[in-house]
Amino acid sequence: MLTPIREELKKLSLDGLLISDPTNIFYLSGFRPTDSKKKEAFLLISQDQSFLLLSPLDFHGFRKSQNRIQKINWNRDKSWSLTLKGLVSDSNIRALGFEAESLTVSELKIIRRRTKPTRLKPFPKTIERMRIIKTSPEIKKIKRACQITDRSFDEILKLIRPGITESEIAHKIEFILMKNGAESSAFKPIVAFGKNAAVPHYQSGKTKLSTGGLILDFGARHEGYCADLTRTVYLGNPDSQFRKIYRLVFEAQEKALTKIKAGMKAKRADHFCRDLFAQNDLADHFTHSTGHGIGLEIHEGFAVSPYDQTEIVQGMVFTLEPGLYFKNWGGIRIENTVMMGDTEIKSLSSADRELICL
What we know:
CATH superfamily of the largest domain: Creatinase/methionine aminopeptidase superfamily
Structural class: alpha+beta
Strand content: 15-25%
Number of helices: 10
Number of strands: 20
Order of helices and strands: HEHEEHEHEHEHHHEEEEEEHHEEEEEEEE
Oligomer: single chain
CATH class of the largest domain: Alpha Beta
Distance between the termini: 48 Å
Low-confidence stretches: none
Mean pLDDT: 95
């Protein structure tokens, strides 16, 4: 897994790379920080060695690292920057790459000061590109996350009743996911009732459920990997307008599921849903992309959008989530996590996509 990184280092005439993004560190080493907001680890890769710099809080608790990476403990007497200084010097690193988007200005200043006269250079997103195509073990973990999510959906439906609030359901979703085997929720669940469903990334609030449409957007995280599922259900008996819009969103997703093929550009894949909505004079009510890459992060690598030139190939995992939204009325979204096979898409989500009325 480190070979492509070392090949990139040679191309850029770099002797080493300092990785600071927590997700990339986990991807390469297996170490996951306990607090994603703090720098609790750095990964230093040279042409012949690799070192995982850990704080004393994590060093003894983390036992096994991937890719023959050596653990290094920084302690109270020797901070991470002094530890890094010694490793850069000992490894004769004269030109060091770094991840510009995951370092603060102050951290970069510290690294620059400690590693002088080493030259620093921003490193391209080689690791992020590697993460787009999943290995068999990664796909297995995502499949398990999807299974937990599907199973949880059946239990969540039993909670839905008039009088319960959106926030109450959202909290219970997280509990149900973990009860069913998730290590955590992949993201904060979206529970949007009635008019609130017109906002795609609505934050669940104190609105009480009554008669109307309800969007449920949630997913499990299993061994670091995410699932993402959205279903729209109805409390009561929906009118003909709701059923018509639901059927259109369903048909848009079905079209994407069956028409997207390996080798197709993401921007082309996006048009299957968008064109159908445009044919029904509803293009302005589809306000986001058709889908997004998913893996260690809920949004990862690329988007199935009108602007993304990424070629969709075997091993990519992403979502398909067409939706239509109307101010002062509500919204409808249906989302599956899917995988690109040899030629066609395979859905990893299996929860019922037909309109469920409660």
